[in-house]
Amino acid sequence: MRYKRYEMKYQDIDPSIVIPQHLKGRYKATLGWCSKSVDSLADRLVFKGFENDIFDFTEIFNMNNPDVFYDSAILSSLIASCCFVYISKGEEDVPRLQVIEASNATGTLDPITGLLSEGYAVLERDKSGNPSLEAHFMPGETQYYTNGKITERHTHKCLYPLLVPIVHRGDAVRPFGRSRITTTRSEERRVGKECRSR
After folding, report:
1. Which of 8, 98, 118, 126 has the fewest CB within 10 Å, making it most exposed?
2. Cα 15 from Cα 24, distance rounded (Å)
């Protein structure tokens, strides 16, 4: 829903009571300020680098197209409240970083470290939108599933899964953060009704 609002494709389905009944069927409205406000905030957030970089993280990030990587991660976390970075082994054993949006990944967050204790991500989808390649991230191991069956296992020495969350304004109530795009009251009522009916 938030990506639809950001792309200005979300249409309000709860028109006001002041609109006459015979005109409600013609009512269509989209908000245009969502993308402008999120983009202006994302443009102001600039990642400059790491201090005391004893593990050479800057070199790893520079090998993974930092111009696109940072912007994509920041924008995705502002829209959906969080995004995830998938770490894998690339050519010549160079660490490869890929941003995954919140709708394609999840996990169990460790409240002390802010890292995942276990994670799941959809890496590829077929033409129908169904997951065709999935990954289950665990400490010391990553399992890959193709069409629901395990096809690969990769072990590593890291004590955490190789799926890292980037959270925007996380707190104790919402550890996966808060989106910059908020829902309207009519949308909250509609979602509440759907949850109660289930």
Report:
1. 126
2. 7
